[in-house]
Amino acid sequence: MKKRLFSGIQPTGLLHIGNYFGAIKNWIKLQEEYSGLFCIVDYHAITISYEPKKMPQRILDLAGDYLACGLDPKKSIIFVQSAVAEHTELAWILSTITSLGDLKRMTQFKEKSKQNTENVNAGLFNYPVLMAADILLYKAQVVPVGDDQRQHVELTREIARCFNKKFGETFPSPKSLLTKGSRLMSLTDPTKKMSKSYGPESYIALSDSKETIYRKLSTAMTDPARKRKTDPGTPEKCNLYTLHQLVSDKKDLDYVVEGCTQAKIGCLECKKLLAENIFKELKPIQERRKKLKEKEIKKTLLEGAKRAKEIASQTMREVKKNMGLS
Ligand code: TYM
User: How far does Cα 34 stand from its chain's mean position?
Assistant: First the structure.
């Protein structure tokens, strides 16, 4: 039997290339080898302020993006978290064996509570427990995510260990799978992670046109030591070289490294080539996205939820039995 894989993204607006290179691109490859569940985690998204009227469209948009990127409903289960009530049921149970100290140590909670000072709610604090429930409900062994989620997967392992010790062997120990692009940095401030929170100029959206990509890159920060076109640069210290390594072939990489280190090309030339290569990767996704019908997306989500629920309810029966619950 194939090993099981679980991953998810919050429906909080446009996807960026951090989400793509950090997670989704890897999902597409892994869905061949694993039995995959790919979730739209709407219960996670409501831990920050949002507009209820916009949520249904955001969910559909994200599901459409999953399909356009190449997730195949024939191979994988694609569904919305809130359509399978067992996620919150297991989250409650797991919260009773999760240490408060562990939750207080979560980097993302610390960051998010600083960014949302007006709404630091208990859900934001318990967020990693719900994530653990997502993963353990399907007994997933692998979790392909970006670097910022690694700590949450480690906590999930700890929670699984604790549950198994108290109530008998129930859950496998999941591990995160990271890619070369597991931590893309902001275009406007390369000391920070690429994220929607720093505004649209700081990231490249999957839906950006070639012109928009080039415009965003043309003002993006490069190797801080390179001040003029005639100064040689250090590609390893340049945020944009990291992106080149994800999208450019050997010929283009050699051209950029030689041109930059010997001051034969300026940053703008390098950025232009980068914009072209990023767009080459995004163009087929954008084309597939345009062709998708809402009806088709909704059908995929309904079927996905049904299949997910079958596995989830089986796990919950086992969990409750092991815990002496009804
Ligand atoms: P979310 O929605 O913040 O991000 C979705 C995925 O994109 C990755 N990512 C990045 N990768 C590289 N560079 C970046 N700058 C970057 N920014 C985001 C994230 O690491 C993630 O893989 N808690 C999760 C969603 C979730 C989940 C789960 C994931 C809920 N339950 C169970 C896996 C398993 C989150 O908020 O991701």
Answer: 18
Tokens of 3: 């090993």
User: Is 240 within 8 Å of 274 (Cβ atoms)?
Assistant: yes
Which DSSP letter does residue 185 get? B
Residues of the chain with pLDDT under 50: none
Estimate the crossing angle of helix 150-167 against helix 294-323, to 10 degrees. Answer: 40
pLDDT at 231: 79
Residue extents of the structural domains in the chain: 4-183+294-323, 196-288
Partners of 40 in beta bridges:
9, 80
Q: Quick one: 236 exposed, middle or buried, by C-beta within 10 A (0-12, 13-18, 19+)?
A: exposed
Give residue 197's pLDDT.
87
Active-site position among 3, 29, 75, 196:
196
Q: What is the residue-wise DSSP string for 191-208? A: TSB--GGG-GGGS-BTT-
Q: What is the pLDDT of residue 229?
A: 72
Is the CATH number 3.30.930.10 carried by domain 4-183+294-323?
no
Sheet holding 142-144, edge to edge: 77-80, 35-40, 4-9, 142-144, 175-177
112 is catalytic: yes
* CA 81 to centroid of ligand 1, rounded, Å: 15
Distance between Cα 214 and ligand 1 center (Å): 25
